[in-house]
Design goal:
Elements lengths: L8 H11 L13 E6 L2 E7 L9 E5 L2 E8 L17 E8 L10 E5 L2 E7 L10 E5 L2 E5 L1
Antiparallel strand pairs: 1-2, 2-7, 3-4, 4-5, 6-7, 8-9
Length: about 140
């Protein structure tokens, strides 16, 4: 199951504007993503502009994929923002992987601010042909 929209995203942005001391909240910010199937794999792409590849952490535990990344601010604590719409701080997203996906063979790449994950469909979940043998008028399925 994938959450397509985050109903609290706008509320987080407003809270950051009015209550955030340094532009970050305790609750991790959402990261936009696309997920689609192509052939025998799923592709999930996360928008992470301005994030260094070494600040991205991927973890799979009990069919839950967790993506964490951090985008720091400008580093100047004396800066007085006039407009602060670009989220900073820690970003986190969890995806629940179905039993039909091969979580042991996930491939990850990062290019132009986009983290792309390729998750193969498990061999046991791929369609297969079942042979039918006929003895007189009785059919048996051999799988």
């Amino acid at each position: 199951m994938l959450m397509r929209t985050d109903p609290f995203r706008e509320l987080d942005r407003l809270t950051q504007q009015f209550l955030g001391a340094n532009g970050t909240l305790a609750r991790p910010a959402a990261m936009p993503m696309d997920a689609y199937r192509t052939g025998d794999e799923y592709v999930v792409a996360f928008d992470l502009p301005g994030v260094r590849p070494d600040s991205i952490d991927l973890d799979v535990s009990q069919n839950v994929l967790t993506v964490k990344a951090e985008r720091p601010g400008p580093g100047d604590d004396s800066a007085e923002y006039q407009v602060a719409e670009r989220p900073r701080g820690v970003f986190s997203r969890q995806l629940f992987l179905g039993e039909t996906l091969d979580a042991d063979n996930i491939q990850a790449g990062y290019e132009a601010g986009v983290l792309s994950l390729r998750i193969p469909v498990a061999e046991r979940a791929k369609p297969r042909k079942i042979a039918i043998s006929a003895d007189n008028d009785t059919k048996r399925i051999n799988a």
